[in-house]
Amino acid sequence: MRPATKSTPESALQEQTRSQENTMTSAIDMIQRLPQPPERSAKTPGGERGHIEIRDVSVEFERSGDWATAVHRAQVDIRPGEFVCLLGPSGCGKSTLLNAVAGFVTPTRGELLVDGAPVTAPGPDRGMVFQQHSLFPWKTVRDNVAFGPLMSGLGRNEAMSLARTFLGLVGLSAHANAFPATLSGGMQQRVGIARALANYPSVLLMDEPFGALDAQTRTMMQESLLDIWSEFGNTVLFVTHDIDEAVFLSDRILIMSASPGRIIADISVDLPRPRIQDLLTRPEFMALKRECLDLIRRETLRAFEQQNGQAG
Amino acid sequence: MSLNNSDIGGEAGSPVIDQVDTPAADTVATMARQAPVRLPETVRRYLVRVLALLAALLVWHWASSRGFNLFINFENVPGPLVVGQALIEALSSADFYLHILHSLRRIAVAYVVAVVLGVGLGILMGRSRLAEDIITPYIELLRPIPAVAWIPLAILMMPSEESSIIFITFLGALFPIVINTVHGVEQTPKVLVRAARSLGASNAAILRHVVLPGALPSIVAGLAIGMGVAWFSLLAGEIISGQYGIGYFTWSAYTLIQYPQIIIGMLMIGGLGTLCTLLIKLLCRPLLRWQVGENDR
Ligand SMILES: Nc1ncnc2c1ncn2[C@@H]1O[C@H](COP(=O)(O)OP(=O)(O)OP(=O)(O)O)[C@@H](O)[C@H]1O
Ligand SMILES: [Mg+2]
């Protein structure tokens, strides 16, 4: 129930002191110094932002004359500040649903609202972190991060100092002048996160952002993502097909199944925060993981049977 | 030749390297420190290229002085020494420089117009399907027409001889620039456009920050090819007329049967064309700095 308490000053303070015991101390210091234009900050007291309403949304693609359903009548309400994972096998429509929220894909049915406003196009209130390389290769790391602030009308100096701050946040200050091609995959993904955050989005959309990383880098990135999120308090919608990752990160897991892409379960994850890697071996974690696995297995079997029935 | 090569590297490795005046000089210097005996890759490769040209000179000299005649006849071809002498003579006459100057000016005017129009059209075609469908047939139809074939129409249509020469040169440069620009613009990765949009970029900002820089490697390739084609189109144009121009110089040497001058003209066109192409590449290089390391990913 963290999101509900997030805006009170005491809890924010507690969070800060708690986080300072973590390794990201310097980064947290930096966040406290972040210039936060009130109307853009996700932590604005009074009006919490980042409320996602997915109302009976379907997405269909035309494929050689036929219509294929990628997302089938999804119905979700995501509270401001919630960390939600979309979990499901490859091809079940996770990216499609995420892209619909981002405004890249238009639903063929239903309605999508972010903070009460219907989604019609991509916008800076919904930051996006992609799975593939998506940094501008011709811009330095700093210019990549400064791009959003510049586009929102900030002056060059302000945008640059924001970029510096956010690069510090992801631990890449030393690489500000490098071109993306000279960074490792993990570093590039961190730049991608900094770039999305620099716009102070109320919603952060992440499409398997750590999918291409090795296990070790991946766990480090997960921990620092949680650190950053706990400070920003924005809503995160995170796509993954890794059950461990979903359980470790989220407040809530939406399980999707293929044929056609449907949300088949909505599991709340009541594990304590801050979460550290030790959690992975704890019985509560195991139990939740088993629950997800069972659900996915049952659904997959059901889908198989259905297909067999149709074929026979 | 390889023996020669390593000799130079062995005794004069570092002094040669210290004088190298290229952007790669730093890396060259560090490489030299690590392996003082071997010449760095780039220097070695350029050395091979220079030696290859010298070898051609030697063969030419040998063939023309011996009167080599086996299918290819060198009996009446002036040797490199004769041509060299004629070149020194030409270089000491003011007229020769006027020829070069006139050609350079025509190239400059035609090229600038071709770049502006070519890149502009290319972007338009790459971004708008309608524009592409309207313009593509013209380009496909006109592109295979050689510059020489344009001479009569150019004379008919253009107000002056000078402008018809420039028109023909311009046409030569235009097509490769347009085609490469379209190609580059159409290759813009979708994910980058999406990223820009979700960061709040307008269409104009996407064009400037995503589409154009992404197309730049392809555009630069088109600019370099366009420069080469401009030079051989210029020659066709200068056959028309004029009193000056390196093409005119070559053509009049041909009508007067001055063989050494013909060869000088040919080499001059080749040399100037190469130099101009090199210049374009050098000028564009800072714009493509981000590609360093991109290819060994
Ligand atoms: N632009 C498109 N045109 C046609 N079909 C599409 C398009 N985008 C996605 N699809 C189809 O929709 C379905 C869901 O795709 P989606 O990319 O959302 O899956 P996913 O769950 O993200 O899979 P993965 O984990 O492999 O990324 C797939 O069958 C895919 O082929
Ligand atoms: Mg996907």
UniProtKB/TrEMBL annotation, chain A:
Residues 40-52 have a biased composition (Basic and acidic residues). Residues 1-52 are annotated as: Disordered. Residues 1-26 have a biased composition (Polar residues). It comes from the Bacteria. Keywords: ATP-binding, Nucleotide-binding, Transport. Residues 54-283 form the ABC transporter domain. SMART domains: AAA. CDD domains: ABC_NrtD_SsuB_transporters (cd03293). Transmembrane segments: none annotated. Gene3D superfamilies: P-loop containing nucleotide triphosphate hydrolases (3.40.50.300). InterPro entries: AAA+_ATPase, ABC_transporter-like_ATP-bd, ABC_transporter-like_CS, ABC_transporter_ATP-bind, P-loop_NTPase. SUPFAM superfamilies: P-loop containing nucleoside triphosphate hydrolases. Belongs to the ABC transporter superfamily. This is Nitrate/sulfonate/bicarbonate ABC transporter ATPase.
TrEMBL record, chain B:
InterPro entries: MetI-like, MetI-like_sf. PROSITE patterns: ABC_TM1. Its main location: membrane. It is found in: Cell membrane. Keywords: Cell membrane, Membrane, Transmembrane, Transmembrane helix, Transport. The chain crosses the membrane at residues 46-63, 107-126, 138-158, 164-185, 206-236, 256-280. Residues 100-280 form the ABC transmembrane type-1 domain. It is a multi-pass membrane protein. PANTHER family: ABC TRANSPORTER PERMEASE PROTEIN MJ0413-RELATED, ALKANE SULFONATE ABC TRANSPORTER-RELATED, MEMBRANE SUBUNIT. Belongs to the binding-protein-dependent transport system permease family. This is Binding-protein dependent transport system inner membrane protein. It comes from Alloalcanivorax balearicus MACL04.
